[in-house]
Specification:
The protein has 265 residues and is an alpha+beta fold. The protein has 5 helices and 4 strands, in the order ααααββαββ. Helix content is 40%, strand content 13%. The chain is elongated and about 170 Å long.
Length: 265
């Protein structure tokens, strides 16, 4: 009887490393290189940030030292400065700044826009109050009380004036009203704006003077009041025009011509 053949394989089974050892080796080498490059990049970034922070700290330290030196210089200069002598210069500088913020052109333009009919301004004075505020004083006259009230209301509606104070008001003997106003200006005046004039009743047209006489209608009177007859004034005598002396009349001799006979046709 024959001996059976046994199929024995004593070699181990091939592993993944033996089958793909090249691919796995190059992959591990690439990953290591990437990690090395990344670590180098992060290290350089941290080093640059640290160096920048150091430079910033040094610059801040220098600025702090410079500021402290300037503060010491200012304190020493303030200690050596005489406030009594410099006060006049400060007041002059403040006055110049306030006058530049509210010049005469701005005030006159605002007053021109506030003017109403039947009134006029006689005097304008610019002064300063106790708190160094620009104060405008006006002297004017109005024909009627309504014109004065309209002018005051127009000034109150102007934002450049903080307040309108009526200091004096009196009635004139010949008719009309005299008044004095004080106008404290606003600390920060707003920009200039042109007011829009409302369209009202148009003004009557101007009548040109002519050589012809104009008939004036008599005023309307009530029926109960008698109408006086018109007064007729005689015309002033006119001097006779000067004439030259006429020469004496001398008759002229005329020559009579005989009539010619007509010829029948």
């Amino acid at each position: 009887m024959a001996v059976p053949v046994l199929q024995l394989n004593l070699a181990p089974r091939p592993s993944l490393w033996r089958q793909r050892h090249k691919t796995l080796g190059w992959t591990a080498l690439g990953l290591g290189a990437v990690l090395l490059i990344g670590s180098i990049g992060f290290t350089w970034r941290a080093y640059s940030q640290a160096s920048r922070a150091g430079r910033d700290a040094v610059s801040l330290t220098e600025e702090a030292k410079r500021a402290s030196r300037q503060e010491q210089q200012l304190q020493s200069s303030l200690q050596d400065m005489d406030a009594g002598k410099e006060q006049s210069r400060w007041k002059l500088a403040e006055k110049i700044l306030q006058e530049r913020s509210l010049p005469w052109s701005r005030l006159t333009a605002e007053l021109e826009q506030c003017m109403v009919p039947d009134m006029r301004l006689k005097g304008i004075q610019r002064a300063r109050s106790n708190n160094q505020q620009v104060l405008l004083k006006l002297k004017g006259e109005a024909r009627t009380r309504e014109a004065e009230a309209a002018f005051v209301e127009s000034l109150r509606a102007t934002p450049v004036f903080a307040q309108v104070v009526l200091e004096r008001e009196s009635e004139r003997a010949g008719g009309g009203w005299d008044f004095e106003l004080s106008l404290p200006a606003a600390p920060i005046p707003p920009p200039f704006q042109v007011k829009v004039i409302k369209q009202g009743v148009p003004a009557p047209p101007m009548v040109k003077a002519s050589a012809r006489p104009v008939a004036v209608s008599a005023p309307i009177r009530p029926a109960s009041q008698p109408v006086a007859p018109p007064v007729v004034r005689p015309a002033p005598p006119q001097p006779a025009p000067a004439t030259e002396a006429e020469p004496p009349y001398t008759p002229r001799r005329t020559r009579v011509r005989p009539a010619s006979p007509r010829i029948p046709q």
